[in-house]
């Protein structure tokens, strides 16, 4: 098929149609390799298409040459970009150049951008400016905006792990000029004291409830025009010092149909960019504003904003993670539930500490005397050491199996996130670790000491509790709405 299509191009037959077809075919990497064999045998023919009188032929030739990626093409593309008199083609040359090492052309690209800035805008000049901006930002990442929206009226949604909204709400309502209520997915909060709210450690993210009403549509263009009309840009500007353009991306949630989801995101992005007067630039690599569309079944959608310009300093220590690392907001939530049982100046042990998240969040809650973490993974141990250093928390992290750990004194608290059953090769391995927790726990936990265990295997946990009469359950808290994970608060019966 490639050879036939290329043969017709060499003969000058149906150039426009054949180039469109060829561009579609070379999107596949395997087909692209076949095309490259043809290209290097007839490169003068393909380059010559840039001189064709038909603008659509030039347009598709540019796209094709961009996919070739031969460095010698960069100069050719730029020269034709400068000479091109058809405005709507300018952006295609720039898009093709994005795949090359084009930094030497930055001065010329910046100069062209400044020229366009000073001219009356058209649809095609806007598109050219967009592509120029992308090239400039790709080579020289832009300066981000400064957030300044802490003390104005804000209506926000705190994303909270399922089933724990009331717990987070209690923390919220302790803040002056702040009120909230539980809703699906989290806590809806109104506040004039956002800085205090975002210091709470038990939520996962903040979404700004920019337009607190259902939009009865799942059409991207309709949603875009609606939120622009309702003041999207002034809303964003009011929360930032600088008034220069904002980079954004669209994120659609709650839609199972991937094709429809992508279609909505694409249409919304296009609408916002074309109708924002240059203030919104679709740039997923450097975005500061996430337009989050949440589908509400067949009724329509809600639109929220996530502002990455707003600092979140709660978990800056979390530089290193593993695939099984606990989210720090969940660890903070666990500590919130067990706070009344924590002993000041306690000696603390985590026998399966991973990257240290649970220990670090424990340290942030109540003072302690000593803190030890064990793990058999050297990678996890190194991560825990670095994370604890960044948190300013002294944790003695030891690369050792719990079964081999010896210590001169007993611990007031043993707390841990039990290894996931599905990550263990055999069910017997999980049973062994739970058995180890209780046998060694009995040796190392001080009389009346507290054991805090997060487990995703409630059945196995209950089985081991029934087999160990030396310890009793104070509380069992479901950590997921579907009861797939549990928090156990246990106490040594010995006095």
**What is the approximate shape?**
elongated
Please provide the count of β strands. 15
* CATH third-level topology of the largest domain: Rossmann fold
Strand order of the largest sheet: 2-3-1-4-8-7-5-6
Q: What is the CATH level 1 assignment of the largest domain? A: Alpha Beta
Give the N-terminus to C-terminus distance in angstroms: 83 Å
Percent helix, as a range, is 40-55%
How many DSSP H or I helices?
Answer: 19
**Which architecture name of the largest domain does CATH use?**
3-Layer(aba) Sandwich
Low-confidence stretches: none
| CATH superfamily (homologous) name of the largest domain | Vaccinia Virus protein VP39
Estimate what percentage of residues fall within beta strands: 15-25%
| Mean pLDDT reading | 92
| Main pleated sheet | 8 strands, mixed
Classification by helices and strands: alpha/beta
Q: Gyration radius, to the nearest Å?
A: 29 Å
Domain tally: 3
Could you walk me through the main structural features you see in this protein, from its secondary elements to its overall organization?
This protein has 495 residues and is an alpha/beta fold. It folds into three domains: 2-139, no CATH class; 154-307, 2-Layer Sandwich (VC0802-like), CATH 3.30.2130; 328-492, Vaccinia Virus protein VP39 (Rossmann fold), CATH 3.40.50. The protein contains 19 helices and 15 strands. It has helices at residues 2-10, 15-25, 29-41, 43-48, 55-68, 73-83, 87-97, 106-117, 123-139, 165-172, 194-197, 220-229, 232-238, 258-274, 328-338, 357-363, 378-391, 427-444, 458-467, and strands at 154-159, 178-183, 186-191, 205-215, 246-253, 280-282, 289-295, 301-307, 346-350, 368-375, 396-399, 411-417, 445-455, 471-478, 486-492. The strands form two sheets. It has an eight-stranded mixed beta sheet with strand order 2-3-1-4-8-7-5-6. A seven-stranded mixed beta sheet has the order 11-10-9-12-13-15-14, with helices on both faces. Helix 5 runs parallel beside helix 7 (87-97), helix 6 runs antiparallel to helix 7 and helix 12 runs parallel beside helix 14. The longest helix has 18 residues, at 427-444. It is elongated, with a radius of gyration of 29 Å.
